[in-house]
Automatic annotation (TrEMBL):
<protein>
    <recommendedName>
        <fullName>Tail fiber protein</fullName>
    </recommendedName>
</protein>
<feature type="region of interest" description="Disordered">
    <location>
        <begin position="1"/>
        <end position="31"/>
    </location>
</feature>
Length: 331
């Protein structure tokens, strides 16, 4: 849906005349002196802009030689005619691998969904393959880099997929996730010029050099080198807070393993919980005839309070040990 580009076309949208009474076209009738309806430029501009708005909202680049863009945009907006509105941040087979610490990474996906706002227009990008460099900084340079400032050290960076619906351009944009919950649609105020659609794709850890730490991202899950969240000999009869600072505030659950042991023969038990109310309990127990320990995995323990989980631990004798390590999380 390309705008009129004749040499006589106005360079900007003219102000339409005052609205009159709505009616219908007529060819007129010379016998009765009824004039034919005049076709005003303001009406043509209205129709042109209405159709073009559909094309742009559907994520297509207006073309002068493609004659199915309005149809294609409508199908895009309703996801192939199925009548199901896509959800911003939805992905299919998203992947990112950082084998060794690096400032750069590449995200690929069969498809991602970005948008201007929750509940607003959405843009579906297929065969997505874009790279990001944390050393690239600035509003304009932020295409494929950080939005502003430098990446935080020993913390987390959120990576947004962003798009320009007028040109069809797409890219990645980094934002510091240090101590904050990042929104699903970028709201940092430093979007590169022309980019109006976005979606949070992942939040990943950084090292002391403000680089990506080794990790593997698959859809909403992030696997990384395991980090300890608990190591204590203190028993706890009621749920006690564990600072789970090895995951970002955006994390919804975490996976890893817990270990219990004792210096002497004893019955030892431990549980990890999602809340102080005791929900989401995952536990391990051991009866020892002598000193020893045992480890057990926990899987997708829900995080109901940002960067916090809870534990209980008991022992019938000796000096117990209770520990836990996180190796994965989902946002």
């Amino acid at each position: 849906m390309f705008r009129i580009d004749d040499a006589t076309a106005a360079s900007s949208l003219p102000t339409p005349e005052a609205a009159g009474t709505e009616g219908y076209f007529t060819e007129g009738n010379p016998a009765t002196g009824t004039p034919a309806t005049l076709e005003r430029a303001s009406w043509f501009n209205m129709v042109q802009e209405e159709l073009r708005a559909i094309v742009v909202a559907g994520g297509l680049t207006p073309s002068k030689t493609t004659y199915t863009q309005v149809r294609d945009a409508i199908l895009q907006l309703i996801q192939g005619g199925a009548g199901v509105t896509p959800i911003i941040g939805s992905v299919r087979n998203l992947a990112m691998t950082v084998a060794t610490a690096s400032a750069t990474a590449t995200i690929t996906a069969d498809e991602i969904v970005i948008g201007s706002a929750l509940g607003g227009s959405k843009l579906t990008l297929g065969a997505f393959n874009k790279s990001i460099n944390l050393a690239t900084v600035g509003v304009n340079a932020g295409v494929g880099g950080m939005d502003t400032g430098t990446a935080p050290a020993n913390s987390f960076v959120g990576i947004y997929g962003i798009g320009n619906p007028l040109t069809g351009a797409a890219a990645l944009l980094g934002q510091s996730a240090n101590g904050v919950i990042l929104p699903n649609v970028y709201g940092g105020g430093h979007m590169p010029a022309g980019y109006t659609e976005s979606a949070l794709l992942t939040v990943v850890p950084t090292n002391a050099s403000s680089q990506f730490s080794p990790c593997v991202v698959m859809d909403r899950a992030v696997d990384f080198n395991g980090s300890s969240i608990l190591s204590t000999s203190t028993t706890a009869a009621s749920p006690t807070i564990v600072n789970n600072l090895v995951v970002p505030l955006n994390a919804k659950n975490c996976t890893g393993f817990m270990q219990i042991g004792n210096s002497a023969a004893a019955s030892v038990a431990m549980a990890l919980l999602s809340s102080s109310a005791g929900t989401g309990t995952q536990s391990i127990a051991l009866t020892l005839n002598a000193s020893g320990s045992i480890a057990s995995p926990f899987n997708k323990l829900k995080i109901t309070v940002g960067q916090r989980v809870f534990y209980t631990g008991s022992s019938s004798a000796g000096t117990p040990t209770f520990s836990a390590q996180v190796t994965s999380y989902e946002i």
